[in-house]
Hints:
Helix content of chain A: over 70%
Number of domains of chain A: 2
CATH class of the largest domain in chain B: Alpha Beta
Shape of chain A: globular
Number of helices of chain B: 9
Number of strands of chain B: 10
Radius of gyration of chain A: 21 Å
Shape of chain B: globular
Largest sheet of chain B: 6 strands, mixed
Largest interface: A-B, 30 and 40 residues
Number of strands of chain A: 0
Radius of gyration of chain B: 18 Å
Helix content of chain B: 25-40%
Structural class of chain A: mainly alpha
Number of domains of chain B: 2
Order of helices and strands of chain B: EEEHEEHEHHHEHEHEEHH
Distance between the termini of chain B: 32 Å
Oligomer: heterodimer
Amino acid sequence: MVKGLIDSKRLWPVLGIFVILLILPPLHAPRFYIYILSLMFVTSLLAMSLNLTVGYGGMFQFHHCAFYGVGAYTFALMLTKTSLPMWVGFIAGPIAAAVVGLLIGWFCVRLTQLYFGMLQISLGSLIWAIVFRWYNFTGGDDGIHGIPRPSILSSSNNTYYFILLVLVICLAALYTIVKSPFGATLQAIRDNPQRCEAVGINVRRHQLIAIVLAAFFAGIAGDLFVVLERSVFPDLLFWTLSLEIFIMCLLGGWFTFAGPMLGAAIIVALRTFVGKYTEYWTLILGVILILLIFFLPEGVMGYLLRISKSASQRISGRSQVDAASRGHA
Amino acid sequence: MLQVEAMHKSFGDFAAVYGANLNVERGELVAVIGPNGAGKTTLFNLITGQLRPDKGKIVFKGEEISGLPPYEICKRGIGRSFQIVNIFPRLTVFENVQVAVLSQQRKSSNLLSPAQNLAVEETNRILESVGLSHKAGSIAGSLSHGDQKVLEIAIALGNEPELLILDEPTAGMSPEETTATMELIKQLAEEQGLTILFCEHDMEMVFDIAQSIMVMHHGQTLIQGKPEEVRENKEVQEAYLGLDAAQPNGGEVDA
């Protein structure tokens, strides 16, 4: 995987962005922007985990934030209700999310396409209802606030660095998965499940593994949300959030690896800055979705890749023409 | 190697396969012929598990395989191509075959190593054997129809099948492509010792290369035997070959 990254021409811009992100806090960027960036990182990881099933697996993962919420709640409950060290809860979050992913996924992969999505919305909403109603345990619609975090994470800069570190590790892991034989097979299943069965691939099992992995990474995103916000609330598992991350994948470009990250950053930025001026944030989201479907079906990243590709083709085409005209002269 | 006995399959009221029998010996090149709607494709789909039989038995290498899911049947050594092009259109030609090779090597669930370094040699060898090496990097969906049909066969070969089932491998091909593909099939059977079961409409070709021919009509097996036996059989002449039976180059009987 490391080799693949180093080989790629895209390494340098990626490294450049990474370095800028690293030195931002020491430059005394306002705390508000550090917070927004941290939130973008958390949301990016959530969107990228969803894209493993939506973009690479071609599955109708309609209620992905259920796993995000389970991860966040597990971590929060471990921190508030037990005296175990923080890292135990941090690992328990994604594991709980993966187990829920296994349960929900086990039923969902038995259905196809839209039915898969409908069942997932139902089962995910069930979890939301439990969290929403179980006052004694989950805090009900109030959620849990003021979750203690270790002193090392108390400053916003340290939180920022911690979240960035976890994000980079997770991105490396996701990249490895996408480029692995499992990832290749998953894309083949997305394109043609029937053919995959005929070449000896257990399609359902592969899809289930993908759901569990996606849930695991969503659980890590849930952990990071708790680290950042020190609170959890039922909205984390509500289906409108699932819709929002789905839109992030579509907006960024779900056939590209980094697209969902871009989508997440755009949506978080819009929600933050547009949300200040209007209460009708979801209205704007709807308009974005409509524009997206009509004008950018491959998403922003897909669009950028396409124009950069055609630009380079134009340049190489022109140089060929030049060469030809020189040949004539 | 493969025995199909008294196979039945209905879709609603329509009996697509109604008492089909088939026997394939190891190393044989066996053809199934019959008019459109005779149930050839349904029979193949039953053998490779895309459909579940209503009645009847399928025995492969002494083991009953009827009703198993397709991936289990594939793992037991039966590879297949499809009549209607059935590839991975968004992946490259190389990746199309590699997916099958990775599956054959039980590496499909490997999460950690980069796929681009795995199964490269085997994949390239298969692409070379079918003559698609020079298109390895092309997106499969952009290939010509003929090349896509050849890619079909290449994907099936990726599983190193003992029995290769080809459902109309030359459907929709130009005459030149058809000849080349038939050469390829002969070569696979002779040089690699593959057992091949295929169905085809071009009678000339079938009688030319097949060692055994099974004739289907209205979902039933009329006869299975050597090409000469089949050609001389009265029932077959009436049901299928028609007046042109005396001249096997009569060509497309059921266009």
